[in-house]
Design brief:
alpha+beta, globular
Length: about 150
């Protein structure tokens, strides 16, 4: 399952090269979320995503990815990892973006020697109200999800 999450990241990387919780009908915005993430110390940038377009825009968030757990003797360095947040005008648009992303990811594996299901890919992404989010470095970790969701504004 971890391989599938990493493979999803690779598929979403290809798609993207061109390119705090609440309730009720409140919608999150790119600008307020970006401000929160930057105050929390994350580097962000607004990006154009030709494959996963949404009316509220897309935001790239830089995360540091530490050394692999299975390589403890490797020098301790961090590599860049990215999460992308796609803001829809409402939850329906965000759900449509998620469905498009899952379809594209599944299609990218059709001619690969690995079996990846839509359900497996869906486990590695997130959807909160009008925001769809995913990582280009594999499935989002719980920590990454918490950081993202805590700054949704």
């Amino acid at each position: 399952m971890q391989r599938a999450g990493l493979a999803l990241g690779g598929a979403l990387v290809a798609m993207c090269l061109a390119s705090c919780g609440g309730s009720g009908s409140h919608k999150y915005t790119l600008s307020a979320t970006r401000s929160c993430l930057e105050k929390a110390g994350f580097e962000t940038s607004v990006v154009a995503n030709q494959y996963l377009r949404a009316s509220g825009g897309s935001l790239r968030v830089h995360f540091n990815v530490g050394p692999g757990l299975l390589a403890p003797n490797q020098p301790h360095t961090t590599a860049p990892g990215y999460a992308f947040l796609v803001f829809g005008k409402d939850p329906a648009e965000a759900l449509a973006v998620e469905n498009r992303a899952l379809t594209l990811a599944v299609q990218s594996f059709e001619h690969q020697p690995i079996l990846v299901t839509r359900a497996t890919i869906k486990k590695g992404v997130g959807l909160t109200k009008n925001v769809f989010y995913y990582s280009t470095t594999g499935a989002l970790t719980r920590s990454e999800r918490e950081k993202i969701v805590s700054c949704l504004r």
